[in-house]
Amino acid sequence: MLSHLNTFFPRQSNFRIQYNFSKMFCFQCEQTMDGKGCTVKGKCGKSAEVSALQDLLVAQLKHLNSIVHHAKENDVKPVTTYSDHFNLEGLFATLTNVNFDEKRFQKYLEKGEKLIEFYLKNGGEKLKSVLHENGIQTADFSYSKPLKDLIKTGKEYQLDLTEEKRPVIFTKELIMYGLKGGAAYLDHARLLGYEDTSLYHYLSESLQKLSLPVSEFTLESLLEFALQTGNWNLSCMELLNRANTESYGHPEITTVSTTPVDGKCILVSGHDLRDLKLLLEQTEGKGVNVYTHGEMLPGNAYPELKKYSHLKGNYGGAWQDQVKEFSKFPGPILMTTNCLIPPPKNYSKRVFTRSSVGFSNLKHIENDDFSEIIKMAKKQKGFKNTKKLALKDIIVGFGMNQTLALADLIIDAVKEGAIKHFFLIGGCDGAEKERNYFEKLAEKTPKDTVILTLACGKYRFNKKDLGVIEFKGNKIPRVLDVGQCNDAYSAIQIALALANAFDTDVNSLPLSFAVSWFEQKAVSILLTLLHLGIKNIFLGPALPAFLEPSVLDVLVKLFGIRPIGDVDEDLKLMLKK
User: Fold this and answer.
1) The dihedral of CA 157, 159, 162, 168: what is its sign?
2) Cys bridge to 318: 188, 271, 456, 574, which one at CB 3.0-4.6 A?
3) DSSP helix, strand, coil percent of the chain (3-state; round to 5)
4) Cβ 487 vs Cβ 298: under 8 Å
5) Mean pLDDT of the region 331-358
6) What is the spatial distance between Cα 279 and Cα 377, in angstroms, rounded to a whole number?
7) Closest CA to 80 of 180, 197, 193, 232
């Protein structure tokens, strides 16, 4: 598929950024320092010590899966799914704004070492011999040392930024971040009882492959690998979509209140619908109301969740405003996944974490028992005197099934000129002022166009009155909220259905993509879009620091990917389709 890529590779890169660091290096998210990398402390709030432990955990996962790879090739029995589950847990913990707890990473490393020892014991001398031949360590591991020694060892696994190696090293990181995002989706599906061994196998083999030295790769082979990872992530999102919809029903068009009501309350943030369901079950009839926050907003549209009368709506907006919003919320907060900002003391005692989320001074809920957070909610003041409030509602629930049920109406509206263009404006939100671009773009889209949106980027405009399109007695909302970031799967299926209806491909539709990215799940979605051949994506607020210019040059020439610029000029380009 990419055999012609070498035509586009520049002979010499003009990439001359100087990386000076001694404490840490991380550039896996959009907010990385100066667009280069965090070298003293992560802008996300993680310490250099946590960064080192994350680097060591990723190195351990590569080590483990190299052993698993050769164990499978040599028919070592048993090959256990425990390592597959550990891959998900470990990678998820290293996502941006998930886990800041040094001791939790120490436990992950101890667990990983036990899995390595399990395979070595079962493989015997035959497996050890094969591993030695391939240069894979079988003794004297560095994973069960005291914490300070683990941190010191982790610093040895910082990226090698030797200039001539950067294009390959950076592209390997692009793939790793795509794997992290897909692993998060697989972990959500696993907790609902949905698993696919073929997807686990791809992840394991990919981690093994990424353990190989730079000399084993070409840019061409790595870009092929990246697109394959995009295809894998499409299947990960499909599995999670099936898990969510079969567990909770297909999302329905729902008006969500953002006006709180008097009473005791708990706020649920993150992405995990299972945790929301468990909390609703355990708070039913106990006089405690539940509110969603951030990426949990779409939970209000699922039939098996919205049926609970004490799910009262949504409070607040995107993750970056949580310090202000959590400070004012009059009850405890449940953080189910990212994005957690290190909490200040004024509310840290009210924050509880789940699954892969961790912070050293926060209470972590194990074994699906929410009694402690419910007990705290009853002791907090809760909302009072809310009758005077009248905040704007939000309409959600335009997932794949709901939107495709309206397909005939939408297709007729396009054919008769009532809808002239579609935009997908969504993705991660963040604090940078450059993200105002997406708000302004939504506001400036013509009145005869429709916006599909998803993930927390929607908060830039989902309370604005952008109107409706009146057609044959129907009112089609101009903003269709497809759901969470993983519901990019739904958005893709909607686009494919439209393309099929008009007997064309997605790139030929009057459809433009403006994608805001922040962390690794957005990277996995971007790789999926590229795998599908989606072209002319406007990406912002800044291009990833790990896209080395020679690689970016290829993506620009093959896919027309471009950074966001002036809103008016970009809008003109989009409307030319």
Assistant:
1) positive
2) 456
3) 50, 10, 35
4) yes
5) 96
6) 12
7) 197
Structure tokens at 286: 């106990």
Banded model confidence at residue 59, pLDDT cuts 50, 70, 90: very high
Q: Which of 235, 570, 271 is nearest to 423 (CA)?
A: 570
Single out the residue of 501, 541, 292 nearest to residue 412, CA to CA: 501
Residue 22's pLDDT is 65
- Around Cβ 364, how many Cβ atoms within 10 Å? 14
Residue owning tokens 């105002």 = 436
Q: How far apart are CA 301 and CA 296, in angstroms?
A: 10
Beta-bridge mates of residue 263: 383
Q: Which residues pair with 471 in a beta bridge?
A: 474
Place of tokens 């011999």: 129
Check: CB of residue 248 under 8 Å from CB of residue 305: yes
CA distances from residue 219 to 52, 264, 337, 550 in whole angstroms, order as listed:
27, 56, 33, 9
Model pLDDT for residues 221-235, shown as the tens digit of each residue: 999 999 999 999 999
pLDDT in the model for residue 229: 98
DSSP tag of 340: P
Cα–Cα distance measured from residue 186 to residue 87, given in angstroms and rounded to the nearest whole number: 10
d(CA 324, CA 336): 19
Backbone dihedral angles phi then psi of residue 256, each to the nearest 5 degrees: -105, 125
Highest mean pLDDT range out of 18-22, 79-83, 386-390, 545-549? 545-549
Take residue 79 and report the two structure tokens written for it: 């090959």
pTM across the whole model: 0.94
- What is the rounded CA–CA span in Å between residue 109 and residue 434? 38
